[in-house]
């Protein structure tokens, strides 16, 4: 029996080192995966990503039709104005939270040749109308139950906002909820309002 233990001892040591080495490899790979995941989360949560997506700045804002007060209009009808195009839904809590600041923004920019244009993706017209009344929405808004308009902008997260200059080009894309009364946000919109 003692001889068997002596003969198996080197095998046990080898198995221990193999196991320990495999465990170390798993720890290193696990740590690298964790670092990679944190880097991806940081990239998408970073203020520079959320506050302005450079890849769309300067592109022509896709035109679309919408109905306001029973009349069909097009985004292109608003050329000459700065349009703060906001995609939202009544079931989206961050959208609900930013609505009062959009109401205030409408009041601030209307006299400067700007307008907030809300595009709701509510599928339930009753919920949409109820929200407009409860939130006392003062900016023009349209319920796109088809979801086509957000699709042509590539919008998949709500809320999402595009600042469109007087020539109909996208000046800025903002992903996620904002306080549109924040001085930095107001300053960025006013910079577009001052452009001819």
Report low-confidence residues grouped into runs of 5 or more: 42-51
Largest sheet: 5 strands, mixed
CATH fold description of the largest domain: Glutaredoxin
Tally of strands: 7
Count of discrete structural domains: 2
What is the global morphology?
A: globular
Structural class given helices, strands, pairing?
Answer: alpha/beta
- Tally of separate helices: 6
Average pLDDT taken over every residue: 83
Q: Which percent bin holds the helix content?
A: 40-55%
CATH architecture of the largest domain: 3-Layer(aba) Sandwich
Computed Rg: 27 Å
How far do the termini sit from each other?
95 Å
Which homologous superfamily in CATH is the superfamily of the largest domain? Glutaredoxin
Content of β-strand = 15-25%
CATH class of the largest domain: Alpha Beta
Order of helices and strands: HHEEEHEHEHEEH
Strand order of the biggest β-sheet: 5-4-3-6-7
Give a written overview of the molecule.
By secondary structure, this protein is of the alpha/beta class. The protein folds into two domains: 2-45; 54-194, Glutaredoxin. The chain is built from six helices and seven strands; from the N terminus they run H-H-E-E-E-H-E-H-E-H-E-E-H. The protein has helices spanning 2-45, 47-51, 93-109, 125-134, 148-153, 183-194; strands at residues 65-68, 71-74, 82-88, 114-120, 141-143, 160-164, 170-175. The strands form two sheets. The chain has a five-stranded mixed sheet with strand order 5-4-3-6-7. A two-stranded antiparallel sheet has the order 1-2. Strand 3, helix 3 (93-109) and strand 4 (114-120) form a beta-alpha-beta unit. The termini are far apart.
């Amino acid at each position: 029996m003692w001889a068997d233990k002596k003969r198996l001892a080197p095998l046990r040591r080898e198995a221990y080192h193999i196991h320990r080495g495999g465990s170390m490899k798993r720890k290193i790979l696990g740590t690298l995966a964790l670092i990679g995941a944190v880097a991806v989360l940081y990239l998408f949560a970073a203020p520079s990503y959320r506050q302005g997506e450079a890849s769309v700045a300067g592109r022509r804002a896709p035109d679309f039709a919408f109905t306001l007060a029973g009349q069909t209009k097009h985004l292109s009808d608003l050329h000459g104005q700065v349009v703060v195009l906001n995609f939202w839904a009544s079931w989206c809590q961050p959208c609900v939270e930013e609505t009062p600041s959009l109401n205030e923004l409408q009041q601030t920019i209307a006299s400067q040749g700007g307008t907030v244009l809300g595009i709701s993706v509510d599928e339930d017209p009753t919920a949409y109308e109820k929200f407009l009344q409860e939130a006392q929405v003062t900016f023009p808004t349209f319920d796109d139950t088809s979801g086509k308009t957000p699709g042509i902008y590539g919008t998949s997260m709500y809320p999402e906002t595009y600042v469109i200059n007087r020539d109909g080009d996208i000046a800025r894309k903002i992903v996620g909820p904002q306080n549109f009364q924040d001085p930095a946000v107001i300053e960025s919109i006013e910079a577009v309002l001052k452009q001819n």
